[in-house]
Structures are given as structure tokens and as C-alpha cells.
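retry 2 of 3: previous attempt timed out while embedding zinc ion. Reduced batch size to 1 and resubmitted. Inputs unchanged:
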Amino acid sequence: MKINLKELPQGRKVISVVLEREEIGIKEHERDFELIGDVKTKIVLIKSRTTVNVEIEIDYVLRLQCSRCLELFEKRYHEKEFFVFREGEEKLQKEKSLSEDDIYTYFYATEEVDLSPLIRDMIILSVPMKPLCHSDCKGLCPVCGANWNEGSCEHKGKLKPVTKLSRLLEFKDKLPG
Ligand SMILES: [Zn+2]
Ligand SMILES: [Zn+2]
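retry 2 succeeded.
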């Protein structure tokens, strides 16, 4: 998703594109998620003399694994982020102090900037630390592994559900040494 900022006319320009997973640099199976289908993108560019303000809006579906019941589920996301591109040398960036406003400031010395890495970061940052299939997911029985969303077992009500973390700890305890 390359945009030529130098040739971009002054003023406002809106670009709507549909990007495929490969174009954004996302693998078919990422560690914590899968991107399902394409990413709908709306980009608003506002150019003044030496600055281009870029608003990126994206729509996409992720397949995640619930951290409680371990089931896979799909969720639609809508994210929006602002970036500022300023004409100049890239090294200037390091001389600036990192205030809240400067976090998304990029300098462009070349004519074209690639927005794909920014879109990739937006998607990766939207992946929750502990995904939940539903906010009230009941989890799995730690004894028999029954999915308490689907039904009950003799242990329900007496024990806390197992979580991904407790499963990992359990596994670690079983490792030799
Ligand atoms: Zn769940
Ligand atoms: Zn049980």
C-alpha cells in the first residue's frame, strides 16, 4: 500500500482499498490469531506544504482462541489511527523528544511511503492479551475438561474453571527436571 506523498496534491484525498493478507505482511497463521478474509481500508490524506496527515481506518475479522474455553471464535474489528508524515531526513526523528504528539510522526525523505507496516501494527496491537469468546465464558472443568458453556459435569460449582495459564503451569510441573 504505497503512496507517493510528494506527488500528492495539496488538500484532502480519500482512498478506499481492500487489502489482502499478503499485502499487509501478515502470515496465514500468526502466533495468537488468524486474519480471516481481506482488510477494508479507508485512508484520508490531508496535505499541507510539508506535512501530510494520514488517518487510517480498517475493518477486518480475526479468528482467536478463547483464553478460558480454548474454543476458536471470530470477531470483527474496526480500528482507526492517526499518523503525521513530515518532509525531511529520517535522522531528525531521533533528535526529537518523544511526546504524545510525536509518537506517530514519521519523516519521509523518499517520494513513496508504505502504509502496509502501519496497518500490520494496528492489527497486531488490536489482538487482545486474553481473548474471550463471550464476556461470560464459563471455561473448562479442570478435572474432566468438560466445556461448561455447553453443559455441566459433576464438578461444576465445586471448582474454578481451568485457564490457558493454569494449563501451561500444569504442563510445566510435569516436565522432567
Ligand atoms: Zn470461551
Ligand atoms: Zn468435570
